[in-house]
Model the fold of this input.
Amino acid sequence: MRDDKKYIFTSERLGFRNWDLTSDIDKMDEINSDEKVMEFFPNIPTKIQTVEFIERMKKQFQEKGFCYFAVDKLDNNEFIGFIGLSEQTYEADFTPCIDIGWRIKSNEWNKGFATEGAKKCINYAFNDLNIENVYSVAPKINVKSEHIMTKIGMKKQYEFEHSLLKSDERLKTCVLYKTEKNKNNS
Done:
């Protein structure tokens, strides 16, 4: 059942690929509509915003060789969300930068997929793309994401007020994590 040819790279249980505008939109929209998944975001994206996100990721992959990759479980080719790298340009002392992020359907949580996938993406960033530093950001209250950041070997840099979340008291204070190529032997 595995179709490794469609993947840019794989980890033990996951396949990382570019987005498919025909088959991924409804599945990603379903994930984006899950209040548990979107708990630490200011709002639930509309279907149009989900389409725009996927189009932006496809374009970024064409231009840079990376994006928040569409991720499938290899054992059954089931789409479970995204894990990957994206360029961030919002106003902050550390931007522009390459950020690692993930969003996985809630019934696939606590199975190690985000950790496994993020480690593989950092390896891809350092060894295939020759990126020197990878960052990760999450609202301070999102301790689950911060836990993954530490599990994948990232180091906390500091807390800051996110320029895009300043009007949201609950989310504006964020944590910044970083890992560096020469300090990560993935």
Notes: Helices lie at 25-32, 47-64, 113-127, 143-151. The radius of gyration is 16 Å.
